[in-house]
Amino acid sequence: MRVHTRRDSAPAGYTLAGAASPDTTIKLRIALVQSNPAGLEDALYDVSTPSSVNYGKYLTREEAAAFVAPSAETASTVNAWLADHGVTATPLTPAGDWLSFTVPVSKANEMFDADYSVYTHVETGQTTIRTLSYSVPVELTQHIEVLYPSTTFPNARRQPQVTKAPVSAISETTQGAAVDPSCPSLVTPACLEQLYGIPSAAANESSNQLAVAGFDDQWANLADLSTFLQTYRPDMPASTAFTLETLDGGTNNQTAADAGVEASLDIQYTVGVATHVPTVFVSAGEDTHDGALGGFLDMADLLLGQASPPQVFTTSYGPNEDDVPEALAYNLCNAYAQLGARGVSVLFASGDGGVSGTQTSECTTFVVPFPDGCPYVTNVGSTTGAAPETAASFSAGGFSNYWARPAYQAPAVAAYLAALGGAYAGLYNASGRAFPDVAAQGVNFSVVIDQEFYLVDGTSCSSPAFASAVALLNDELLSAGRPVLGFLNPWLYGVAAGALNDITEGNNPGCGTEGFNATVGWDPVTGLGSPDYAKLRIAAGLS
C-alpha cells in the first residue's frame, strides 16, 4: 500500500469526536484517472472558436464522454481489485470515470488502510465521517485520482450574498422605451431591456432551454413569479412558469414563507427577461455525493447524462478555490468542458467579495472564488448605474491559483497587467486564469419574495441577466438554422469583444486594499463589459 492522500489534522472548526462505528455504512466514490482530458480541451476549442472549420459542430454525449472515460486497463484493474474485496461498484457518469459503492466503515478502513472517524463542526454541531489519510495498492496509484469521502471535509459554500430591503414604491416601466431614469435605483426586466437592447418579443424555439441551478434549500415560488410577471411583464401571461428537475433529494417547496431570495431572483430574471425561452429550475438536495463540490459535480453529471441538455446553464453559488482540493476541482472543470463541447454555455456569478473571495476581510493575499478559475466557464461580474455604468464594488475578480491563463484571453489580460505594473505584486497569481469574463447590472434588482417586493444586490443578479441574453441569441440562431453559441469565451474574447459595453470606472476592494480597477479593455472587475444585444447579434452573424 502507498499513501495516496494525507492531512496532518482536521481543518479549523472541526474536533475529533471518536472512531466511527465499524458497522456504520459509508458511501464511497472513486474518481478514475481520465484517459484524454487534453483531447477534450482540444475538441472543446475546436467547436467553440469561430475561426475553426468545426465551429458549432458540437459533440454527442458519447463523443464527449469518450475523452474522460478511463482506459480499459484502468477500469479493469480497479474493478478487479474491488471484486477481490467483495465489492461491486456502480458507474455514476456517462463516461464511467466515477464509481460508487457502499461498505461498512470497517471494510473502508481495511481496503484503504484508513482510520475513518467522527468529526464535529463546532459552530453548527454537524458531524461527518472522515479520515486523515488513506492508501491504495501501488499498482492502483496510476489509476485512481481521488477517493471521496476521505480527507476532504465539508466547507461553507459561498451563500448568495444579497442585501434585502422592502421596496416602498414600485415604479412603472415600459418595455422598449428609452432608459427610465429610475433604472439605477430600481432594476426591472424593462430596465435590462432598455439598458442592453434585449428584445421583449417572445422566443420561438421550444428546443432552446435555459437552466437555473438551485442549492441550499433555495426554492422558487410560482405564486411569487406570477406576481412579478403581472407587475413587470404584463405583456406575458401571469401563468408563465418553469419546469423542475431534482437531484440529491432536491425539492421545490411551494410554502410561501419558504421562498428563497436566490431562487426567486434567478427564476424571476430568467423567465422575465428571456421571454418564453423554456426555463428549467434544477434543484439539488442535501444528499450530495461529490464532497467539497457541494452538488456541483452531481448537477453537471445530471446534465451530461441527458441526450439534449439545456443550452444555457447559470449558477450563483460557490466556495473559495482553496476550499476545494485540486483533483476534485479539475474533475469538475472537465465536466464543464464536456458540457461546452456539447454546446452548453456554462455561466457563473463571479462572487460578491471583491478580491476577498467569500466576503472575508481577513486575508493576506487575494482570495479566488470557485469555480471562477475554471477556463471552461464564463464568469459574470456586476455593474451599477447607467450612462455610463460603473463597476459594482463587490464584483469579485482576479486570477486563479489552480489554472493557468488560457490562450483565448491572453492578449486582453496582458494589456491590463502591463498597465497595472507592480501593484499588488505577490498578492495574486499573475499567470493564472483571469476572471470575470463579462458583467451585467447587479444592484437594486426588484424581486418578489413571499408576495413582498425587495431590492437585491450581487453578482447573483448579473449571471441570470447575462444568461438570458445568451438564451435569446440562441433562439434567434436556432430560428435561422444555425447552431447555438455553446462555450462562449473564445467568441467573447474574439469577434464579440467589441460588442460589449466597456466599463472603465470603479474597483473591487478587499483584503485591506482598494482591489483591482476597472479600465479601458478587459479588467478583473467587469471583464470585457456588459452586453450590447444589437452588437452581439452582429457578432453572432445574425445581422
Topology of this structure?
Blueprint: E1 2-6, E2 14-19, E3 25-32, H1 37-48, H2 61-68, H3 72-84, E4 90-91, E5 98-104, H4 105-112, E6 117-121, E7 127-130, E8 133-136, E9 144-148, E10 165-166, H5 189-196, E11 210-214, H6 222-232, E12 243-247, H7 261-271, E13 279-284, H8 296-304, E14 312-315, H9 326-341, E15 345-349, E16 378-384, E17 390-391, E18 398-404, H10 410-420, E19 432-435, E20 438-441, E21 445-449, E22 452-456, H11 459-479, H12 489-492, E23 500-501, E24 530-531, H13 533-539
Describe, in plain words, how this protein is organized in 3D.
The chain has 543 residues and is α/β, with parallel strands linked by helices. It has 2 domains: 2-34 and 69-148, Alpha-Beta Plaits, CATH 3.30.70; 182-398 and 435-494, 3-Layer(aba) Sandwich (Rossmann fold), CATH 3.40.50. The chain is 26% helix and 20% strand. The chain has helices spanning 37-48, 61-68, 72-84, 105-112, 189-196, 222-232, 261-271, 296-304, 326-341, 410-420, 459-479, 489-492, 533-539; strands spanning 2-6, 14-19, 25-32, 90-91, 98-104, 117-121, 127-130, 133-136, 144-148, 165-166, 210-214, 243-247, 279-284, 312-315, 345-349, 378-384, 390-391, 398-404, 432-435, 438-441, 445-449, 452-456, 500-501, 530-531. The strands form 7 sheets. Strands 11, 12, 13, 14, 15, 16, 17 and 20 form an 8-stranded mixed beta sheet that branches. Strands 4-5-3-9 form a 4-stranded antiparallel beta sheet, sandwiched between helices. The longest helix is centred in the C-terminal third of the chain and has 21 residues, at 459-479. The protein is globular, with a radius of gyration of 23 Å. The termini are far apart. It is found in: Secreted, Extracellular space. Ca(2+) binds at residues 502-503, 521, 523. Secreted tripeptidyl-peptidase which degrades proteins at acidic pHs and is involved in virulence. Residues 186-543 form the Peptidase S53 domain. Its cofactor is Ca(2+).
